[in-house]
Each structure stands twice: as structure tokens, then as C-alpha cells.
Records
---
Amino acid sequence: MDYEFTHKPSYTHLIVTLEPGESIIAEPGAMVGHSANVSMNTGTSREGLLSSAKSLLGGESVFANEFTAEGTSGTATFAPPSPGDVMAHELQDETLYSTDGAFLAATEGVDIDSELGGLKSMLGEASLTPLALKGTGTAFIDAYGGLEKLELAAGESYVLDNEHLIAWDDQIDYEIQRVGNLKSTLLGGEGLVFEFTGPGTAWYQTRDMDALVSTLAPRLPNQG
């Protein structure tokens, strides 16, 4: 499988070239288009697919889309729902954790698990549904706004707001803290922050969708 990005970094568009028989799964609504010989199946039985799709839609659906090239090679194109960047992360028998809404697509060999026990419960109150992307393959993660990579050396720490965090690897340590600060007060209630400690890597987005909604809401016409 080959892939390329166009319109980076503000309106990134993912183009995937699939060899005959190759597949890729994508979050519902991510598809822009595909070749006529690429089939789209909804709700396949690939391990982890149904549970991950349910998480992506906040528990409202058990469907996700799988695209497969049939007969000859073909292309499929995807884009995230908000303007911003997309990254490709190569997994080699490892795990990448992603926050809800940041997962865009994954190739064969990547299993997606939403059953993360205490972590899932811990983040539930903050409307975060973490996904564990496990195995060997390529995972595509999208960001609202710019996408930044945070590489921490051993013992080095950094704190990220949960609304900006999009992914982290399985090497980095972290603690989740509930805070009441100016930002969370303006957005109505307490928020969560992640304190990461290296060695390891985390990724974050430079914009916050909830902050945008809160900024626009008072300016919208009152619909009663």
C-alpha cells in the first residue's frame, strides 16, 4: 500500500493506493471517494473493528467502513471533518493510543480496541473515548489545526490539555489530573490535563473545537 497527502497542512487530504486484495478501514464519514473497483463494506468482522466504530460514534453505532481493491489496484481518498493536518504513524508490533475523533484510518494488521478498562472509565466524564491501535501497519491520525509532535527524554515532563491531546505511544508515562482553571471555567466546568513523562512521544493539535464552539455560540441567532 502506498499513500500520499495533499493540501497539507491546513486542509490535508489522504490518498491511499491499494494493491489487489488490500484493505483499509476508516472512520464513518471520512471517505471522499474511491476507484470504481474499490468496494466499501460496512460493519465487517475484522477483529476490533465493530467495537472501535462504536467508540468513534460515541456508542451510537456499531458500523465502520472497510475499503478493498478488487481485481486491480485502486485508490481511496479520505479527509477529516475539520480543517487541519493528518499524520501517518508506522506501528511495528506496538500500540498507539488515540483520543476519540482523532482516528482517521488504519491499514490491515492494525487492530483497534476501545476496551481500555480504567483509562476509558477515567476519561468518560470528559467525553474522551480512547482507542488502542495495536499491531503492525499504518495508522492515520488527524488534528484540528496544526499537528505537533512532543518528544520527551527520560525524566522530562510536559502537561497537555485534554482537548489538545490527540495521541501518545506506549512508551511514555502519564498522569491524568482534573483541574479548574480559567480556560475550563470559561468553557463551563472542570477540565482534564495529562502530565506526560519521558521517554516517549505524544502528539497534540493546536486548536480546540470546543473552544471554537463556545466562541461562536453567543454570536449565533437565537432559535428559541
---
Amino acid sequence: MTELMRAAAFAEPGGPDVLKVMELPAPQAGPGQVRVRVRAAGVQPFDAAVRAGWLPPYLGEMGYPRIPGNEFAGVVDQVGEDVTGVAVGAEVLGFTALSSYAEYVVVPAANVTAKPAKVPWEVAGGLTAGVQTAELAIDGVGLAEGETLLVHGAAGSVGTAAVQIARRRGATVIGTAREANHDYLRALGAVPVVYGEGLADRVRALAPGGVDAALDGAGGHALEVSMELVRDRARIVTLVEHGRAAELGVRLVQGDRSAERLGRYAALYAKGAFAFPVRRTYRLEEAAQAHREIETGHGQGKIVITI
């Protein structure tokens, strides 16, 4: 008999309401793979773009139904042949391309790392996208000590990570956010600035020496302001304007995620040396609501689905 699992999936692209809880065949671990019983899965703009019909080129053609979600935490319940260093019962966090909004996910054993006991499931499930996206983006723009980075959506999960990583590297960070989040950004070490008309002039006033690079977590007007302020468009990364990046000459996040990087930031969180707040958790049945919230582009911290 085929083993089944529950997953939040969609049978056709569209708005958040296309996400439905379905019973689908549960994946099985093959050679070099582990299967994880998922406890929490992070939600991010990448997932919303996939749900709307976009797929990163490296995935090729895919059929339906599709299960979004590329970050997770849970307990290993199957270990395939030729896997060493990961055992059934291990608590892990990890990453994949899709399929994390489900009771089970199968990934290469190299895609998981041990979850420290002091990292809650909700944090562990949403940590990878924030820290890996932020570090890869900052590496991609070549941010150096003494430079100024503009982060749009700085109070969100990727923004929160980016502010801390850039500050650790000796950069000045200007972060856009609603005024309610300004004290939060100051606590992270960023100089906050409010969104809206006149943003470019407000940033210029805060950075008379200019802005060297930008991380766009908001899109639209924020991306336009970034292009106005940053001389070299190759030093602008957008997290949301996937379809326009090439024509505008700005970057998408490039590079490989790694379990080493994920484990490094999980350890920092466990030591109290890295902040990563969870804004809200949703049940699997509420995946559509989670997508509605992520698409507002506002809010502090990470959105997570618990399973």
C-alpha cells in the first residue's frame, strides 16, 4: 500500500487560495538521502513566486501538484544507503528546492545539519532562508568593511539576518521599514528610514558618502530607489522581482546554500549571539493565510508553518 502524507500544495498556479491540503504519496529516502518528519517549514517570497507560476531555471519543467517550501526542521525517520553521520531520530534543520510544506520531505543528507537544543522548532524551520539568502546576497555584492548597504524590508527575516551579517563585517546599514519597526532595527545596529515618497532623498541625507550596495526585499518603488542610489547595478540584489531582474541588470541571489553555513548561524542563535524572531506561525491548513501575509511585504521577523 502506498504511504500517504498531508501537504499544502497547488494543482495550478494562482493566488494564495490555490494552496490546499492534499493527501499525496509520501517520498522515500534513496541512496545518499534522508527523510525528515517535518515539524516546521519557513515561508518566504520565493514560495509565493513559485505558487504564482514561477520556477527557478535550475528546476526545469515540473508537473502538478507542486508543494512549495524550501526550508524545514524536523526529525529524521529514514536514512538511505551510503549515508553516514545522520541517524534516525536526529533533530535537524535543512533546505531543499520545494516540497517542505508537507509531513515528510526527502533531501540529500548533505542538506541537513543538527538542530541545537536551544533553537526552537519554529526558529529552526525558518532559519535557512534568512541566513543563507542574506549571506549569499552580501557575498554577491562584495560588501566590504566601511561600505554602506541599503536593505529594503530590513525588519523581515532576510533583512534581520542581512543587517546583522553586514554589521559583523564592519559595514554601515540603512534599513527601510515602517516606523513601528525602527526601534527594532536600531537594536540590530541599522539606521532606520521610513518607506514612501521621498525615500531616495532621505537615504541620501543619511549617507552623504553614497550607498555602495542594496538588498531589495520589497520590490517596486524600493527597487527603483536602489537603482537611483547605487551606481553599479550589479551591486543590487532583489529577492522579489525575479521576473524583472535580468532586464533591469540587477542580481538575483546566486550561490549554493550549505549545511555548514546553516549550522554556523544555528549555533550563534543558540549562544544568544544572533537574533531571529518568529513573527507568526500558521498550521498547514492555513498555508494560504501565511502566503497572504508574506505578500504584504511588511512585518517583523519570520513566518512559519507548523506541521
